[in-house]
Amino acid sequence: MSATERTYNFSAGPAVLPLPVLKKAQEELLCLPGAGASVMEISHRSKQFEPIISGAETNIRKVLNIPDNYTVLFLQGGALLQFAMIPMNILVGTGKKADYIITGSWTKKAHSEAKLVGDVNVIYDGKDHGYRRKPSAAEAKINADAAYAYICLNETIEGVQYQTVPDTGDVPLVADASSEIFSRPIDVSRFGILYACAQKNAGPAGVTVVIIRNDLLERSGEKVPSLLNYKKLAENKSMLNTPPTFAVYMVKLVTDWLLNDIGGLDKMYAINKEKAALLYEVIDNSNGFYKGHADKEFRSLMNVPFRLPSEELDKKFQDEAKTVGLATLGGHRSVGGLRASIYNAMPRDGVVALRDFMLDFAKKSG
Question: Which residue ranges form the domains of the chain, and what is each CATH number?
């Protein structure tokens, strides 16, 4: 399939990547300039790879304006491994409990993994609200002596997003930013740990970016296995073992694109707000034909879940959308319905095409 035959891919992840990034990777795939081999064939300790991983870190620091007292790690295992690594490193041995705010499927899963490792509290669970919103400060009161407080900034499945970062005082805030990292400006200094698996908005599957405040590295105990130990991973600059070299290379290219082609997160944020508004306007003006999941004030800019009046229409929508090049619009298997993931790399033209299809489908089927 040629580039001209590519569909608009609304998958939640692995997700669409910027076309200029794919073209650059294609251009260099057989032979990385100056290396005499593909980036997938060179040593992670070679002089050719060192500027790739250091360049990726430099870019991330610049894009997110990361303070000097934070370490950037390139790890493996995705968010699922972080669910366990976080309590293993910064909860166990503290004699404290960790506070979890459950706002959807991924915080629910994070809590279930964490409680296998250490002592955790659920201080808020949005189940009774159908996971349609984030809690107010009064609803999710952080315990002052908590080892950390855990949130997911954007629940990918439910399409529910924090519009502002909650204030946790002196308690380190730990956040899963997998489906929103690089989508808008964010104050990293508000977090103890901010992490993201790359395959939604930062690169391909295989690498997880972990940004951790340096004082928290000291909590990693000697009994934490080396490859799960933040402090040891930091001391070895993410190369305690072989890192996912190609995935790191792609993160470098994606962040190059964000900085050089887009012009940074302020501009990316403006683009993302406009794209999301195109779809939410259709949902809001459909007289109930399309029903969004999240409450309006907590709607995600990255993931737009919605339903039609019946499962039969949900299926018909997907089938007909595929015929016009709009792909991967099914909702998560756990909730059904439909979902359009419109990450940074989804071009405006793709969102416009989906908007126009939604309007036409409602006119014919509503």
Answer: 22-261 (3.40.640.10), 264-365 (3.90.1150.10)
Is 176 part of the annotated catalytic residue set? yes
Q: Which of 108, 134, 200, 275 is catalytic?
A: 200
Active site residue 252: no
- What is the reported pTM? 0.96
Tally of CB atoms within 10 A around 190: 14
Catalytic option among 99, 106, 231, 252: 106
Contact 173, 151 (CB under 8 A): yes
Are β-strands 303-307 and 291-292 bridged in parallel, bridged antiparallel, or unpaired? antiparallel
Token pair recorded at residue 25: 């990777």
* Confidence check: pLDDT of 291 > 60: yes
For 10-14, 74-78, 362-366, which range has the lowest pLDDT when averaged over its residues?
362-366
Task: With CA atoms as reference, report the closest residue to 258 among 154, 343, 165, 195.
Answer: 343
Q: What is the mean pLDDT of residues 138-163?
A: 96
Residue 257 catalytic?
Answer: no
Q: How far does the chain reach from its first CA to its final CA, in angstroms?
A: 35
Residue 52 tokens read as: 């790739």
Alpha helices, H only, 203-329: 214-217, 230-235, 245-256, 265-284, 311-323
In this structure, the chain runs to a length of: 366
Torsion of CA 271, 275, 281, 282, to 10 degrees: 170
- Inform me whether the pLDDT recorded for 1 exceeds 50: no
CA distances from 187 to 61, 100, 155, 183 (A): 12, 21, 19, 13
- What average pLDDT does range 217-239 have in this prediction? 96
Question: For the range 314-322, what are the long-range contacts, defined as Cβ-Cβ under 8 Å and sequence gap of 24 or more?
Answer: 314/338, 316/365, 317/361, 320/357, 320/361, 321/354, 321/357, 322/7
The residue from 99, 108, 134, 176 that is catalytic is 176
Segment 339-351 shows an average pLDDT of: 98
Q: Report pLDDT for 271.
A: 98
Closest Cα partner for 81 from 282, 261, 263, 230? 230
